[in-house]
């Protein structure tokens, strides 16, 4: 059972990760925005990096609002809002938004691999390669549909909120939550099955595309094109491994354990602590790998520091 210490750590963890995430993602946006368009090759992928940075900021803000904790009581799966947003309805909505970002991160990674696969291995015409980016719309719709299904399956009125009457500790009383019995809720079973299915298919797609991309890159004759694609590919791999380790596997464990009647409360309550760090660590990896042509990160930070110092002196 979650303790007050774990709940406090969860909130502090979310606040810390969100602060780092906002600063790091704004740095990514500022770095790309201050460079000339001609400095970048593969403009669509740069726009994708910018898009991911904005998504990370929204995800991090919602993480502070929700700071989700997962609890299992008998066969009941419960998502508890431990964040700063403690209004019942708004707190439940923030949990639904969290579920959207979780599945969206899974699908987005596989979509990125598919796009890179077609661009590197299939398309030689840039006009054709531009159209493949429309897959992001399909990804968004699938993620939204799944999160809507999960929210509908778990959504509960005030009388079914986590409280002592449900046999849980009084420490959960009054907190916004989404909960339901797994065995008695067919919609929840379908949602969990779809989660496993989507994650499994996404992993298989990423493995397939990764192998094909690696083979194609080895056969590229142009060193310049090869270096650019390898650099982009490294960023893509980093943006895949981080959510896999920090979000997808912990969430799957949280959903799978009750199905086999294995309840390890302290583990389940602690797993969501990892969720907040994906949008904080991912932009740091992007900044580390984002070295295109003769662009140097040190020059960017030196220039940014100088501008900030001038602004402070002027305002004083």
Protein described:
This protein starts with a helix and ends with a helix. Mean pLDDT is 71; it is low at 161-165 and 292-316. It is 69% helix and 5% strand. Helix 1 packs parallel to helix 9 (278-289). It has a single domain, classed as Rhopdopsin 7-helix transmembrane proteins (Up-down Bundle). The chain has a 3-stranded antiparallel beta sheet with strand order 1-2-3. By secondary structure, it is mainly alpha-helical. The protein contains 10 helices and 3 strands. This is G-protein coupled receptors family 1 profile domain-containing protein.
Could you give a quick summary of the protein structure above?
By secondary structure, this protein is mainly α. Helix content is 69%, strand content 5%. A 3-stranded antiparallel beta sheet has the order 1-2-3.
Count of the separate structural domains: 1
Strand content: under 5%
| Relevant CATH superfamily | Rhodopsin 7-helix transmembrane proteins
Q: How far is it from the N-terminal to the C-terminal residue, by CA?
A: 52 Å
**What integer is the average pLDDT?**
71
Poorly predicted tracts of residues? 161-165, 292-316
H/E element sequence: HHEEHHHEHHHHH
- Rg result: 22 Å
CATH architecture: Up-down Bundle
CATH class: Mainly Alpha
Structural class: mainly alpha
Shape: globular
Transmembrane segments: 12-33, 45-72, 92-120, 132-155, 187-214, 235-260, 272-290
Organism: Ancylostoma ceylanicum
Keywords: Membrane, Transmembrane, Transmembrane helix
Protein name: G-protein coupled receptors family 1 profile domain-containing protein
């Amino acid at each position: 059972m979650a303790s007050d210490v774990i709940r406090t750590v969860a909130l502090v963890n979310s606040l810390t990760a969100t602060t780092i995430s906002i600063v790091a993602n704004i740095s990514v946006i500022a770095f790309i925005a201050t460079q000339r368009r001609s400095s970048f090759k593969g403009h669509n992928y740069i726009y994708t990096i910018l898009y991911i940075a904005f998504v990370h900021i929204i995800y991090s803000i919602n993480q502070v609002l929700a700071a989700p904790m997962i609890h299992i009581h008998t066969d009941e799966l419960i998502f508890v809002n431990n964040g700063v947003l403690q209004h019942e309805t708004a707190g439940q909505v923030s949990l639904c938004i969290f579920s959207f970002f979780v599945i969206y991160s899974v699908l987005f990674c596989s979509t990125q691999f598919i796009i890179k696969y077609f661009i590197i291995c299939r398309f030689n015409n840039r006009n054709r390669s531009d159209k493949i980016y429309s897959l992001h719309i399909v990804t968004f719709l699938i993620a939204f549909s799944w999160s809507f299904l999960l929210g509908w399956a778990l959504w509960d009125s005030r009388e079914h909120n986590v409280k002592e009457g449900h046999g849980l500790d009084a420490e959960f009383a009054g907190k916004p939550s989404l909960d339901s019995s797994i065995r008695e809720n067919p919609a929840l079973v379908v949602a969990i099955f779809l989660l496993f299915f989507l994650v499994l298919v996404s992993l298989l797609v990423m493995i397939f595309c990764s192998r094909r991309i690696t083979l194609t890159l080895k056969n590229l004759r142009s060193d310049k094109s090869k270096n650019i694609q390898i650099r982009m590919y490294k960023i893509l791999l980093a943006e895949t491994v981080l959510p896999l380790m920090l979000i997808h596997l912990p969430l799957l464990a949280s959903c799978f354990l009750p199905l086999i009647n294995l309840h390890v409360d302290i583990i389940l309550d602690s797993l969501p602590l990892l969720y907040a760090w994906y949008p904080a660590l991912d932009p740091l990896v992007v900044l580390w790998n984002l070295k295109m042509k003769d662009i140097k990160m040190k020059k960017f930070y030196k220039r940014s520091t100088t501008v900030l110092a001038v602004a402070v002196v002027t305002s004083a």
